Amino acid sequence: MDNTRKILRRKRLKRERLLIHILREQRKHFIRISTIKLYKPKITFMEGVAILVGTQIGAGVLGLPYAASRVGFFLAATILFGITLLMLFTALIVLKYSAEMGGMQMSNLAQKIFGKFGGWVMYVSIFIMSFGALLAYVAGMGNVFSSLFGVNETSSALLFWLFASTIIYLGLEASGKTELILSFFMLFLFTAVIFMLLPTAKVENGLYTNFGGVLSMMGVAIFSLGCHTVIPDVYNGLGDYDKAKKVVILSFIIPAIIYAVFMASFLFSFGRETPQIATQALQSIYGRVGNIIGNIIPMVAITTSYIGVALAQQSNTKYFFNIKKIYAWLITVVPPIIIYLLGIKNFASILAFAGDTGDMVAFIILPIAILVANKWKKCRSQHLA
Questions:
Q1: For all residues of the chain together, what is the average pLDDT?
Q2: Which strand (E) or helix (H) includes residue 161?
Q3: Dihedral pair phi/psi, residue 6, rounded to 5°
Q4: pLDDT at 73 over 90
Q5: What is the largest CA-CA distance in the chain?
């Protein structure tokens, strides 16, 4: 009897250790780029749309008008809607395979299909994306403080970095609900800015074409439309593939239209003179009031975006390498400020770099690779059968 109990106890302990190991492995390889996440098991259709749109709306939108001013309206609009269709296509790939595998997260999908290599590709692409975003946010905030208060740009950027990075380390994290509210508040502000610019808009200001800025425009557009890592969360919350598919489609159409109008309003008002942080141009029309509004908007957008991206990346690094929080924090926040102090301070160009590298790999190349790999496996299995 005692032997039987001992055997049963050993088996129970073995099962518990196995379960703990599985949970740790899942946690270790769980990679995301947004702190927005579900707080209840089931969500409605509109809540799903709100989550995905809220994930896309951020400081990156502020760089779109400047990127568009480098190429002209028609080319910018073509690139924006072309990137939207491409990103929507890859988002639907993520949804399809996540649904087929029980709502599996994107990072786990990559690792399941490509092994450890897939996990590393995902982590490195997210790291590059996060690094570029944090560097752009530091540069942008230095510019904002300098414009708003007339202080030294580098010193302002350094002070912002110290403040925001301390928040990251202390873990004073806003909830996903708060981040969603802020995202939609920003959406309201962007819409208000569009109406502020309508009286000064002249279509001829944007009617030129310059192919030299195509890569920059592509990068910023990719950066501004990424929400793929949150799609499995939305699918799990909805519990229905067809409904989730409609949510994903609508969640790309809405931002694309808003981005296009926001971009066009600046381009038609300022043309080639559109600044890197677009809203700062309001000063030339509305004076001191325009200066305050034009800098308050990026101040809120950049601060919330910095905290969200840094928190997500710190978590990714901590669990991917299974290291202490202090080391994950250092890996996350120190490289961007070093590069900034070395002289890389162009807000829009850094966003374009992040979009053309990390975002492109994570949100375009990797999903297409998953699609191709799965189709190849199916064809191979059918051939062998």
A1: 85
A2: helix 153-170
A3: -65, -40
A4: yes
A5: 91
Which residue type, as a one-letter code, is found at position 190?
F
Enter the tokens of residue 16.
């518990």
- Give Cα separations from 13 to 4, 17, 24, 169 (angstroms): 14, 6, 16, 36
pTM here? Answer: 0.84
Contact 142, 156 (CB under 8 A): yes
Q: How far apart are CA 230 and CA 133, in angstroms?
A: 18
Q: Is the dihedral of CA 93, 97, 98, 99 positive or negative?
A: positive
Helix crossing, 153-170 with 325-341: angle to 10°? 170
Tokens 């191979």 belong to: 380
DSSP SS3 for 171: coil
Over residues 60-78, the mean pLDDT reads: 94
CA angle (292, 297, 300) in 5-degree steps? 120
pLDDT in tens, 22-53: 444 444 455 655 555 555 568 888 888 888 88
Cα-Cα-Cα-Cα dihedral sign, residues 348, 176, 122, 164:
positive
Mean pLDDT of 178-188: 73
Assess contact for 144 and 302: CB atoms under 8 A.
yes
pLDDT tens-place string over residues 198-225: 999 999 999 999 999 999 999 999 999 9
| List of domains in the chain | 38-384 (1.20.1740.10)
DSSP secondary structure, 113-142, as one string: HHHHHHHHHHHHHHHHHHHHHHHHHHHHHH
